[in-house]
Amino acid sequence: MSSRPPHAPDQPATASRLPDVPEPATPEPPPFVHLGPGTLTSALAGIAPERLGEFTGSWHDLPADTHLNTASPYRFRRYGTFRFTGGHLAPLPHGVFFQDRSVNKVHGGVPRLFAPLREDVARGEVLRTLVRTLWDHLPGPRAGIDTCGVHQIRVTATAGAEGHPAPEGVHQDGHCYVAQVLIRRQDVRGAESCLYDLREQPVHRAVLTRPLETVVLDDRRVLHGVSPIRPAPGTDFGTRDMLLVDFFTG
Ligand SMILES: [Fe+2]
Questions:
Q1: Does 221 or 19 have the greater pLDDT score?
Q2: What's the 19 CA to ligand 1 centre distance in angstroms?
Q3: How far apart are CA 41 and CA 246, in angstroms?
Q4: CATH number at residue 171
């Protein structure tokens, strides 16, 4: 004889009998990561020092950015794009760099042709290793993202003329993710990197001071800006070298 009451349910009361409640959404990861230099340093540990020296030394061989329209150039750069799938980095034909006016109030809407990356940089294992490692640290999903743009940029400052890493002010780049890697900072003060939420409230501030210190951000969820640079006290010339890697859908 069953001990079950006459109207007892066949199944215990479970969530299936509750009113439909949406599954809790998976919380989004923070829209950026700030990596100390150890992350990329470790990734590059197996590469010959000579190759690393050639890579960082290539920032001494950047042509002036002719789109700045200043009396004397303070920004120097090269640019290249790559298909990046399965950890393989394949150079794409050289072309212009274009940003919409909605994201770049200074240069938006104007195709900008920068000098191409040097072959040794574009096809070297240093860049390939850096891009793979940055990919591993993108702060969010990666489905469909198969292309990246690589910028080598030097900004200089003299006693009479500060340098502007981001003349467009607080902005987005128009990509999915952007990695900002410090390569070299010499006799510079300033260059505070700041991230903002979409209401332009600051969410992170940092001065990148150690080579390979890196910020990787979700360009759709945060804005970014960098304050001008000036020569450090007691000097009359400062240099800040950055590697920027944009990740987007091809
Ligand atoms: Fe930017």
A1: 221
A2: 47
A3: 20
A4: 2.60.120.620
